[in-house]
Amino acid sequence: MVKDVLKDAEKKMTVSMDHFRKELSKLRTGRASISVFEDVRVDYYGSLTPVNQMASIKTPDATLVVVQPFDPSLIEAVEKAIRSADLGLNPINDGKVLKVPIPPLDEDRRREMAKRIGRMLEEEKAALRVMRRESKELIEDMEKEKLITEDDKFKGLEQLQKITDEHVKKIEELAAIKEKEILQV
Prior knowledge:
By secondary structure, the protein is α+β, with helices and mostly antiparallel strands.
């Protein structure tokens, strides 16, 4: 039973870590990346649709993203969505495609993004601690109800801490890599 709790905790922490990795990939680093557009939503006949579901997005070089809507009549709507997404990007509309130049990040913006990564890291660590606490309580409850022995409880809690420490170390590494990427000129 303790193994089930530990497996469940590890699964939840891994899902959380994958979400953190995805959120980090959305941060603009000064190089072209299509992941920046994942949260951009376009008003498509009354419903908000992700831009990557209604357009082809390509990066021909490190400083340019080309967005080509499948339906050319929606090019203005896509342009408006990119401008209003607060990404600091200004697409150029040539009538058929949107060319989105990726400006280099200035020093202040780099520092601001590094601080944002720090905040994201702290939020993720807090989420992992909540998961650890919930699992710890489940293990302690099992021992109180005499479903497991005290030794099993202590072994389980020790294993839970190891799992938590591994995931914290991994998210710290991910954050450090992204921060280094952003601060690199």
